[in-house]
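Please discuss these two lines.
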Amino acid sequence: MNQTIRQLLDTADLLLTDTDEPATSTAATASRCRGAAFALRVALESAVADRLTAHRAPRAIREGTQRAAFLWLRGCAEAGAARRAKAVWSQLCLGCHYHQYEIGPTEDQVRAWYTEVAVLVALLAR
């Protein structure tokens, strides 16, 4: 795991655990959760890019869309890990986007995503 990925995971953890304010507002909690989701998504994307680079994927794949990267990942990682990475990445994308009619990801959802991303980063680093 490279230093950037470690820092992103630490940032997500800090956003989920740093509650200095005794009565945190719902908006502040939602913002922290969405920020943690962004950090987790970038950490996962970086781990996938590192794996693709290690397996000498073409530059167009490494620097192209994430959809292409996750399709290529199937040939560079275990099938189960590639499927799990794509699934959690899709959920993180939904959690990162703001919609007026949605509250956003809950703290429990983001904690579950954190656990899954941490496991996948370790699997992809092998």
